[in-house]
Design goal:
278 residues; alpha+beta; 6-stranded antiparallel beta sheet; 9 helices; 6 strands; 13% strand
Length: 278
């Protein structure tokens, strides 16, 4: 993820989904590295011409890091005495190098949660709950749908995550995808809930998703709280039902009917052809 500002500062976040590398440069550092790599003459003083050149260079660097341009660059991993991950990009007529450093596990987890995991959960919610296939929406309609989901989830993130993960098709799709990636021998089928299986699904969702109500969901970049989530164990079988929620008890039956009412709307949504849309 590349970030830049109008003052000429820039930074980059790199991840393999488990670790995060980071580097940030101000306008002087950016100009110095650009001249080193592209053999540009050094300025005598920080005059207006130099500041204008830095602004143009920053804008050119931003254009290199677009989704289209980055695929056309030549990518080299380089040895570095200082950086944990150093790599060079060669575009048409220019070069650039990033000397990034590995962040600690706690900081990496927070960044992944804010910049990758939670946005992907929200996109999943959109893809599986949209009345029309996401791939068939116009750009304007898609943007409005994304903004609506983001604003809703931003106000109450715990409720947003709980509602997303309690959808049977989302939960079972994530479980199956996790099992496939981890070479699990027994792969569970995707859920297309029928009335006979609705009680089991509802009780399972009530039991295994209720912890999100009190989980410390990250709500702002200044917060210091952490949140973790594991969906590898999302399997629906009789042994997962808590005895207190068993259908044989009257209290368990009342809970089932209440959860059935809350989940019946989710069962009306069709399966969307796409899984993630940026």
């Amino acid at each position: 993820k590349f970030l830049s500002s109008t003052e000429g500062r820039c930074s980059i976040l790199i991840t393999d989904t488990a670790n995060v590398w980071f580097e940030a440069l101000d306008s002087k550092q950016l100009a110095r590295r650009w001249r080193q790599l592209n053999q540009s003459p050094e300025p005598s003083v920080d005059n207006p011409q130099e500041l204008a050149w830095r602004a143009r260079t920053s804008k050119r660097l931003s254009s290199i890091h677009t989704l289209k341009s980055i695929q056309e660059c030549v990518f080299f991993i380089e040895d570095s005495r200082d950086a944990d991950l150093s790599f060079e990009l060669q575009a048409s007529g220019c070069k650039w190098r990033w000397d990034s450093y590995l962040l600690g596990p706690k900081t990496s987890a927070k960044i992944l949660s804010r910049h990758l995991i939670f946005p992907l959960l929200s996109v999943t919610h959109l893809a599986f709950s949209s009345a029309d296939p996401v791939c068939e929406l116009t750009l304007e309609d898609l943007q409005q749908a994304v903004d609506k989901v983001a604003k809703t989830g931003r106000r109450a993130r715990d409720v947003h995550v709980r509602q997303t993960m309690s959808r049977p098709r989302i939960a079972s799709t994530l479980a199956r995808m996790t099992a496939m990636f981890n070479f699990v021998e027994t792969i569970r089928e995707l859920l297309c809930p029928s009335p006979q299986r609705l009680d089991l699904i509802s009780v399972y969702a009530h039991k295994h998703v209720s912890f999100f109500q009190s989980a410390p969901i990250i709500s702002d970049v200044t917060e210091e709280s952490d949140v973790s989530m594991d969906v590898t164990g999302v399997h629906l079988s009789d042994e997962h039902i808590h005895p207190s929620l068993n259908a044989s008890s009257s209290s368990g039956t009342q809970i089932q009917h209440e959860v059935r009412r809350r989940h019946i709307h989710a069962l009306s949504f069709p399966l969307i052809a796409t899984s993630f849309v940026r």
